Amino acid sequence: MHHDTICAIATPPGRGGIGIVRLSGPKAKSIGLAICQITQITPRQVKFVSFYSTSGEPIDNGLILLFTAPHSFTGEDVIEFQGHGSPVILDQLIQHCIGSGARLARPGEFSERAFLNDKLDLAQAEAIADLINSQTQSAARLALRSLQGEFSQRVEGLVTSLIKLRTYVEAAIDFAEEEIDFLADSQIQHDLHTLSKQLAALQTSANRGRIFRDGMTLVLAGRPNAGKSSLLNALTGTDSAIVTEIPGTTRDILREVIQINGIPLTLLDTAGLRLNPDPIEQQGIRKAERAITDADRILWVYDGTIGHPEPDTEQLPPDVPITWVHNKADLSGATTGCTTHNEQTTIVLSAREQHGIDALRRHLADCCGQHQNDGGEFMARRRHLTAITQAEAHLQQAQQHQYAGELLAEDLRQCQLALAHITGAFTSDDLLGEIFSQFCIGK
Ligand SMILES: Nc1nc2c(ncn2[C@@H]2O[C@H](COP(=O)(O)OP(=O)(O)OP(=O)(O)O)[C@@H](O)[C@H]2O)c(=O)[nH]1
Ligand SMILES: [Mg+2]
Fold first, then answer.
1. 222-367: which CATH topology?
2. Using CA positions, which residue lies closest to atom 30 of ligand 1?
């Protein structure tokens, strides 16, 4: 519990019908009573009152509400004043709160207190900010699911299974004579396999959630003259990229953002990849290679009239998914549309004639998980995915150490620790500071 009392205007800056000031902490109730010049208040009941300034002048009429600890958002005593939405009135209320011993809250400090007082876990607290910041209905729906604990429950489920398995393995270590029998038990193998499948499913859902929040970065890559810049223009509906018949036209990276079903997609047009470029082009190619490494997906554009020139394998990172784009279908005569073979998707289109672009848009919506509805969706952040990837790496090691009790126990412990970072069971103060500083004041 904190010893100081914080206050903030919780409604957005500017004038409005109603303005809200919030107080949280041990002095919240006494400050609330003093500002309204009343002697008592019933928790959770709205009371119509007058608000007074520090010098005892009436400021406004409005409502006061008390939530007593621990039954409040922050877990502390919380007072809410609802007055008229004038910055002058709300400022005077804040001045009176500060004059009576409260201090101005930092951004996100109410939510931080809720987290520190175990009213919500870290993933849920982050979901509040995501809900407030969501730009589309889908994003708001997913953020709400995270706030309601859908993501945290999936993580907690995995942590519970891990604890059960750790108990079993550690018991085996304690009964050293029987350790080998214990560890050779097919139950461990079975549990490790189940856990790794559940973790992979969590990663898929979290990645989809992350895309809803942050969107995706797509890199248009390929040989010079394949039609990358033409495709960028076709997707954005502008002529922002220079298109010429001279190979090596694009040098610097060009960035454009489009929206597909409310998800922001950042498109990067890059220099064509080829051997022996001139020095300027060479710099462009280096930039292109860096962009490719950081991308969520590569659109590998090739000129369909000259077959299917594969990229040199060393040019493309193995872990970035690729969509093959057969361009210039108007010349090659291929039928436009989307085909998937051996999990490799090819889109046949004509960037210049704008044929087949809708098929590409539908495919990109699919890549964002827009057409999958497994009911298990929630909002997630990159830091959650990093934690899941770390947990996966430890679990993979655990599978290799299946018969080495001590090593196996340590791998499982590390795996649990990585997952605990998501819900904030183990979190550094720096990380908390970074997360909550991105919140609004008053939340
Ligand atoms: N017929 C036809 N020509 C196309 C198509 N797409 C691009 N082109 C032509 O191909 C040439 C190269 O197009 P760009 O879009 O500049 O190709 P790029 O891949 O960006 O090339 P670099 O920037 O040099 O790497 C231009 O003359 C375009 O008009 C298409 O779908 N059909
Ligand atoms: Mg270009």
1. Rossmann fold (3.40.50)
2. 328
What local confidence, expressed as pLDDT, does residue 281 receive?
A: 86
Question: What is the value of pTM for the model shown?
Answer: 0.77
How far does residue 229's CA lie from ligand 2's centre (Å)?
A: 4
CATH 1.20.120.430 location in the chain: 128-212+378-424
Name the strands in the sheet holding 47-52, side by side, starting at the edge strand that comes first in the sequence. 47-52, 58-67, 78-85, 16-24, 5-9, 102-104
Domain covering 128-212+378-424 assigned CATH 1.20.120.430 in the classification: yes
Yes or no: say if 142 and 126 are a contact pair by the CB < 8 Å rule.
Answer: no
Query: Helices 382-400 and 186-214, interaxial angle, to 10°?
Result: 160
DSSP state letter for 11: S
Choose the residue to mutate in 235, 352, 357, 360 for probing ligand 1, maximizing ligand atoms within 8 Å of C-beta.
Answer: 352
Ligand 1 pocket, Cβ-based, cut-off 6 angstroms: 222, 224-230, 243-245, 247-250, 271-272, 327-328, 330-331, 350-353
Interval between CA 217 and ligand 1 midpoint (Å): 22
5-121: CATH class: alpha beta
CA of 226 to the centre of ligand 2 (A): 8
End-to-end CA distance of the chain: 18
| pLDDT averaged over 10-residue windows placed end to end, the chain, 443 residues | 90 95 98 97 97 95 97 97 97 96 95 95 94 84 93 95 90 72 78 95 91 90 95 95 92 92 89 85 89 92 86 76 96 95 93 97 87 66 94 95 87 95 86 86 84
Q: What per-residue confidence (pLDDT) applies to 178?
A: 66
Residue nearest to atom 13 of ligand 1 (CA): 227
How many CA atoms does the CB half-sphere of 390 hold within 13 Å? 16
